Amino acid sequence: MPERRSSFLPVAIALLCIAFAVGFFVALVSIGRADVLYKFALSWEAMRALIRLADWAPAILLVAAAIATESSDSDAGFSGAARGVLAPALALATVLSLFYLLVLPVVEERSNRYESQSQLFADSLRAAETAYREGRLADAERALLAGAAIDQLDDRFVELSDRIRSEAARARAATIEDVDEAPDSGADAVPWRVANRFYLEAVQARDEGRLFDAHYLAKRSAAIYSNDVNTRRLVAETWSALQALGPSLEEKAAAAFYRRKLEGYSRYQEGDYLEAFRIYSELAEEAPDDADVTEYLGRSTLGLSDISFFIEEDERAFSRSDERPFSVTLSGPRPARLSASRAAASEGAVYFRDLYLALGGASPLEVRAPFARLHGDRLILRAVDRSTPDLVWEPEYVRGPSSGSGQDDPGYAIIVPFTHEDALMAIRLSGSPGDIPLAVLATGIDDAERIGFASWPLKVELAERCSYPFAVLMLALLGVGLGVRFRPTEPIGAVSRYLTSPLLVALAVPPLRLAAELSAMATRTLAALVPSAWFLPAWIGVLSLCVVASLLVSARIASRR
Amino acid sequence: MKKIAAAILRFFLGFGVSMLCLSSVWALGAYPIGGSPLAVVSLGMAAVAFVPAAVILASFLTFFLLNRMTSSRLRGGITLIALASLTVVGVALLARFLGPSGAVAPSSLPGDYGPIAEWMLEASTAPWPLFAAAYSSLAVYAASFWGLTRLSRSRPLIGAFIAPSAAIAAIRLLSLCLSEPASAIFPLIGLDLPRLYGQAAIVTAGALALALFDLLFARKPSGGGRDA
Questions:
Q1: CA-to-CA distance for A529 and A521, rounded, in angstroms?
Q2: Contact assessment for residue B88 and residue B139, using Cβ atoms and an 8 Å cutoff
Q3: Non-local CB neighbours of A225 within 8 Å, separated by 6+ positions
Q4: pLDDT in the model for residue A17
């Protein structure tokens, strides 16, 4: 007699599709509460639907196995029914396990990132709005930068950005006008009177031999009231007198430029790279083609990079990656504790904000810094604004020597007992364990312990992921047992059978969730009892025993038919 | 007689396994490995507190056997009520006479379960009429869920899927019935009942509602060794 094909796969696939659709609908309805940006909306909804699908998949598997067995030949016993269902169940179990192990962490990480970036965007807009309302336009522009890195097309961003920029432009224009119009204020509002006053002062200065002042005042008078012939003559006369005094102004300017170059060079030779950088930055604005300036600007930048970093690097890093609170604790001969309100990785380095570092050992120290960068094992605690080199964020030493690697370096760079790769690992491990990729989870437990992370949440997560293939197998067996035992007493139409399957899935979800919680508790206990090296084999042993037990239980349930 | 013995065995086996699982899970949650040592008194009090949950779970495990064993709702219901009463009263008497005086439920019990644990321990030391009212209401309540496993005769699989969720719901519903806001109904309508009587009345009312649901919507148990 030809064997009837099992309805397991069609039922399971149909239920998985329904679960995805329901999950997508729930995400669609709840997106307002999640406050996700419109730009991310569709992707976020798809990710949430996949997460919900993963949540319901075990129940779907159980129901599909039960319905497939329930509708199979009534003479088939547990072993016969199990044979028919297990082959497709194992195929689906493999697909689902791969989905759980490889896809779900990425999906969860994406979903969390969309939410955190939307939150960051909203925070940045709120901060910019507050600063704008309080008249702190520079702060408002700075706060907008974080939002700009996320979504520049959002209506709220565009509207606020336009307001802030136009206000800032107006403020700058007003400042320039104030400077230009300063002589017109008060009683000297009439231009020719002011011009006349400057003219008289210029004449007086010429008579007293103050030729520079005389020329300057005559020029100002001419700028205000240029129709006066006497004023124009005075300008020409004082200029001629100035030229007759000595070297030309061009020569003087060149000499001053050379002196500044020399000063920058001296600073560079003394190791004061920041001052050298400031001088050469100024000179580069005046003469961008000057070979010496270009050369020494590059060299001072290079020198500066050993003890400082540019704030733009930090902004770039934080605009590209997730921002997470950071904490690393190391024991050993040189114990260390490093924490930061936020950390982000970029271009082979890790950047920190609001850093706190405490180092123990022979030379203990304690330092705070608003910005810091870790590259290799070198922690740089000073940040410089490249466009305004006078703007520098310095570290503040609470305890210990403020010198790091040498006399010329007052503690701006410290060699720490961990590397940026350790910090990268800490960033990866500091999120939800569910977001951590399997490879990091499998190889990172020892590193996690070394850098002061509790290893049990990682072990529990790893154990949970290892249990997926076993769980789906157990559920398929249990479904077969239930299907054999609770066969319909009267013939049922296929439509009513399939229409009730979503209801059965909904009924199976709460007990399976409870079972998952109990399993997590068992995993935690095992993680506390068994040494790290033996944990995974022990857990797989426990799971194998559970599969055997579920096989026996299912056979027992089915035998009561 | 043999069938009755099987039902008794199933119920007590279910009760024992449920007690063991609930107590172990609580102990693991409340006293993690390497933490403070587990006190015997706390474990004893937690075990007594878990009796209502274990009785409900044991009843659910017995429902399917009763479906195959008897075709009379009354006979099956009385069997279940007798088994549940015997169990809960037996443990309560042990707690009353052998337990420490003034014992309270461990604070580390799950928040949702708090009202049930407090009620169980309070009723164990209450005067006899309150004692009887409280525990008989629990027995009737546990038995009243039987009908949920017989909603579809042609499709017993539905009952098999309803039962685990219904067991979880039964424990949550009991917690709700025993909570302070539910007990506050009687003073609101002008009845000055002792709290345990009020709680017994609410639990019994819930049980009667479920029994009515059984009569109206559930199929009769099929008996004769068939699932229903």
A1: 12
A2: yes
A3: A191, A192, A194, A195, A196, A231
A4: 94
| pLDDT tens digits, one per residue of A418-431 | 888 888 888 888 77
Predicted local confidence at residue A229, as pLDDT:
77
In this prediction the pTM is 0.71
CB contact under 8 A, A504 and B33: no
Q: Which of A456, A507, A513 to mutate to test the interface with B (most CBs of B within 10 A)?
A: A507
pLDDT score, position A408? 46
> What is residue A42's predicted lDDT score, i.e. its pLDDT?
93
Per DSSP, the three-state class of A186 is coil
Boundary-marking domain end, from A245, A273, A289: A245
Q: Is A407 on the interface with B (CB under 8 A)?
A: no
Q: Which amino acid is at A398?
A: V
Q: With CB atoms and an 8 Å threshold, state whether A521 touches B29.
A: yes
Contact A274, A308 (CB under 8 A): yes
Q: Looking at the structure, do residues A198 and A173 belong to the same domain, yes or no? A: no
Domain range enclosing A362: 314-431
- A414 shares its domain with A473: no
| Containing structural domain, residue B204 | 2-217
Query: Which of A200, A222, A245 is a domain's end point?
Result: A245
Number of domains in chain B: 1
Residue ranges of A 512-531 with Cβ closer than 8 A to chain B: 514, 518, 521-522, 524-525, 528-529
Per the domain annotation, does A442 fall within a domain?
A: no
pLDDT at A403 over 60: no
The mean per-residue pLDDT over the stretch B160-165 comes to 94
Closest CA to A422 of A333, A355, A314, A350: A350
Residue from A249, A395, A227, A432 nearest A309 by CA? A395
* A197 and A174 within one domain: no
pLDDT > 70 fraction of chain A, expressed in percent and rounded: 91
Instruction: Indicate whether B10 belongs to any domain.
Output: yes
- Considering the domain architecture, whether residues A205 and A103 belong to the same structural domain is answered as no
Give CA angle at A66 (A61, A69), nearest 5°.
Answer: 125
CB-based contact, B226 to chain A, within 8 Å:
yes
pLDDT in tens, A111-124: 888 888 888 888 88
Query: Does B40 map to a domain?
Result: yes
Same domain, A342 and A383: yes
Average pLDDT of the segment spanning A513-518: 89
Compute the nearest-CA separation of A522 from chain B (Å). 8
d(CA A346, CA A323): 12
Give the N- to C-terminal CA distance of chain B in Å, as an integer: 22
Inter-chain residue contact B168 with A528, CB threshold 8 Å: no
Q: Does residue A140 share a domain with residue A22?
A: yes
Instruction: Choose the weakest-confidence range: A204-218, A493-507, B2-16.
Output: A204-218
ipTM: 0.86
Whether residue A439 is contained in a domain is answered as no
Centroid of chain to Cα A275 = 32
Do both A172 and A69 map to the same domain?
yes
Asked whether residue A219 is domain-assigned, the answer is: yes
Would you say residue A341 lies in a domain?
yes
User: What is the distance between the alpha carbons of residues A247 and A206, in angstroms, rounded to a whole number?
Assistant: 19
Determine the Cα–Cα distance for residues B91 and A255; give it in Å rounded to an integer: 103
A409 and A460: one domain? no
Residues contacting residue B221 through CB under 8 Å, at least 6 positions apart: B66, B67, B68, B69, B70, B71, B72, B73, B76, B150, B228
**Which residue on chain B is closest to A558 by alpha carbon?**
B227
